[in-house]
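I would like you to sit down with the record closing this message with an eye to the fold:
=====
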Amino acid sequence: MVKNKNIGERSNRSSTCKTKKAGSQISNGKDPTSLDDPADRDIPPAPPELQTPGQGQLGFPDRVYLLASAIFQNNHLEKPAAHRLVNYSKERGITLPEVKDEEMQRTAYELAFNTLKYQELLEDIMIDSCFYLTQPMPDDQMALVAVMLYDFQDRKFLPRERQGEEESIQEVRDVENYLLRFKTKLAASLARCRIKHNILSIECILPESVKTKQKRSSSLPLYAWVNTLKSSLDEVQSVLKTVGFSRVKSIGQLEGRTFCQDPHCGDILVFPAQLKAQLYSTRLLSDHKLIIQDKSCSLGPNAVCSVLPEEGDVLMVGCFSGLTVSHTASLVAEKHKANSNNKPTVYVCVSGRTDAQREDLQQAVSTMGCQNVKLIPVVFQSLDRGDKRLQHVRVILLTPKCSVSAVSNPVEFILQENGDTDLLQDLSQDSIAQRKLEALVAQQRKDIDHALKFPKVLAVVYSTCSSYPEENEEVVRRALEQAKARSEQEGEPRQANFRLSPSLFSSPDNAEGPEETDPFLMLEPSEQSNGCFLAVLTREPEQVVKEAPQEVLARANAKGILDRIGSNQPTRKEHHRLTNRMTKVAHACTSQPHLSVSIQSKNQETMVSNSTTLWGHQEFTNRRQPSQGKPKAVRLQALKNTVTSPFSFSKQESSCSSLSKPENSTLTKSITPVFNTTTTTTLHPAPPPATPVVRSRRTQQEVLKPVVFVLPPVHFPNFFPPQHSRPGFSPSFNYNKWRTSAQTVPLSRSGGGPSKDAMVKSRPLF
């Protein structure tokens, strides 16, 4: 009866290191594996577990004690010689005994961790009871004595219950026999210590922060993300509702067989802490459709998926497990599921892991159904920014080793996420040694600085489980300053810098979370979740350069696009428009009283004879000059004449013509005769000047096509002298017979037309 009473008392305590057997009764007295559907009775139960705090049988297998003693030996607090009461072996870093069972390994770490918490108390008990002085125990066995003494006092100094075919280790049995002989003196010494410190239980001597974390760890809910490679959120919820689970709105409403959706990550479901065995009964866990993992490990993969562009790979660096890699890979694959041509790859840096750890990670990824993961066995610091494997990496997930100071259950977290077991002694007292913290910060700075050097990376997600600002905000801000200074020194563009992005996770009213303007996501440790820190550093957007319209056109024309819009030279489109425009002008000129013709050569302007009155069909022929060898550029301009002279010559440029002809033959302009006559009058150009013409810079020459002009009737009442008005005079005559020897009219230098003197000299005499 006394034994049963003690077991009942221990079941209500919050001490650690004792676990229940699979299928044992939980606190509500119901069988956790029982289902309402009889067809589900054949479902295999949850895998066997060793004892957790205050639940189940007495004692552990011998191999658990042996492994726990090795862990304690490597992490115990070594006091100065003047204050040292118990001597342990001086050897550190001893090889741990091989234990393949994960539950047995976790239990051994829990036992060693709790022994570290009460190291000073256990040493006082060994000295006060004279156990250390009377028993001839070698120093290398004192670590085993410490872990077994803690378990002995935790089960009220009752003998251990051994299993049927349990492995026997002689060293463990010898220490156990010594403790059983001194159990009365050991119990009395513990009682005197409690009286001396006036405490009800040994937990009261722990620091307040340690007691708070220990209390939280016993009530933390289970977080599980949905593996979208094997199932979906709707399918998982449907299965849960089928076996009797009901969904509630918030974590605070979790009670019994209930679950809810996480307020920050939509792919995470939350369950009460005691429902792990019931979840195994649904086969969701055994089929890897639902993966139990701490929430702080799932925020990073969700952030990566949010900032990853349509085409881009992911690089994972730091301290993480195969579950985190699988979660990242599943989210990335689901995001790009619709695009079959784009299959992003998740690269994982595994330089600091043994071959066995790499095999375990690869096996875990394969079990989850991930096919887009590639391991890189190279140190991250040695990865060059020009590495061909990383040319498409756009996001880096950096989860460096940290102090894990924001985690309430550090042992389980470290084992699951491949953490640093050297921190167990510091975490047992909730105080990280300064030298260890500085070493962690130095490595974190190196990692984030190197991550920001990759030129094609668009975002870096930095995540820790630390509550120290030195590992969180200070590391990020310093990295941004270093990156900015480096870019300014090397002359890199502004978009080479990074900046902090606002928090990617929205927090509803019923959940605690950061402000919308907070650039960091900081979750404080609570009874609902562990704490974590997350920052997203995104590359500065490319600076938009505003250009004037003229500059845009100039750049476009230089590249041969836009068909040289805005340039002085005619384009193909302009050539076509000018052709149409010339036709319209020809028809419009029929209604004009006068015609102004401007003949402009490339290098000089030559005036043809002005002594004709255009009475009949006329042909203007532009012949090559013998000294030039190329046809001249001739431009004709039709406009309303504003002077009284029948001809007005000007240098004004016109858009009526700019037409080219590939032949080198004579160009002829035919004009429809005004009167009904068949006589053809041909006007020849004046001979070239006697002196050579100095050519300016040669431009592209254009040959004009003939254009037909229809002129209105012209009357010249006073054109001929009175003495020539005689009966029978006809205006139709041969112009060649009417020409005089003085036909060459020089152009005026100041204007485009002939000078007055030239006009007087060139007038024909009748």
About this structure: Residues 74 and 93 are 5 Å apart (CA to CA).
